[in-house]
Specification:
CATH architecture of the largest domain: 3-Layer(aba) Sandwich
CATH class of the largest domain: Alpha Beta
Number of strands: 13
Helix content: 25-40%
Number of helices: 9
Radius of gyration: 19 Å
Distance between the termini: 25 Å
Structural class: alpha/beta
Length: 279
Amino acid sequence: MHSRFLPSTFDNSKPVAIIAGKGIYPELVYDRLKSLHIPGRLIAFEGETALTLLEKVPSADQATVKVGQLGALLKALKNLGAGSAIMAGQITPKRLFKDLALDLKATMLIASLKMRNAETIFGAIAKEIEKKGIQMLDGRSFLDDQLAEEGIMVGKLKIKHCHVTHAIEIAQQMAHLNIGQGVVARKGTILAVEGFEGTDAMLLRAGEFEASDSFFIKTAKSNQDYRFDIPVFGLKTIEVMAEAGIHIVGLESHKTIILEKTKVLQEAKKHNITIFGYT
């Protein structure tokens, strides 16, 4: 088995389509598929997917659609002969409110939802994809070695266990309420909670307090759907933490992908940032 997150029915002879948002994440998945000799296909989003990935994938193996064009997405999956699909990479949050050109199929799907948030919308899209006989894969598939591990991965942890536990509990409650998946805390006080603006903006807000010994906790929801909602941590966040003066981060182990893990740990060490994993 190429990954412990793959279903037992996974057929590695059929193409895996990467539905690719922003950043390095989709590219890491494509590179891993190539190394495993599993045929990879790419569905790029106009104005979102990295040019480096578009240049890497043969033109015959890729298609580009606009954000909100569900009908075009489903057609592209069929045309590329996908046996399974994996969602990787974020869509710029403001695109969900601006310059979103919904086609008829997407409009009807959203209208059918009682609650409209990332979880319900992407869950409904995943359902539509699976109706076409295409298996939606866990977003951690093929990247097992990139996951956060339990314990200290780099640095030294000098904060009290009770303060860490408190922050984890608050982060999990916020995640359960679909508000965000991260908090910044200091000695039992929550300095900032992640909202729709994302992790980096939260870290910069928290950094304005200039509070020593503050730390960042990133968590997953208890009912996290890993087909489309994957906690990730990468080099950009290390840079933002350094800028904000926050030097400790806790990641939920086996559930958070550390993109370019070796580089992240090296960069964390360079900036005197501690990274630990918890369960």
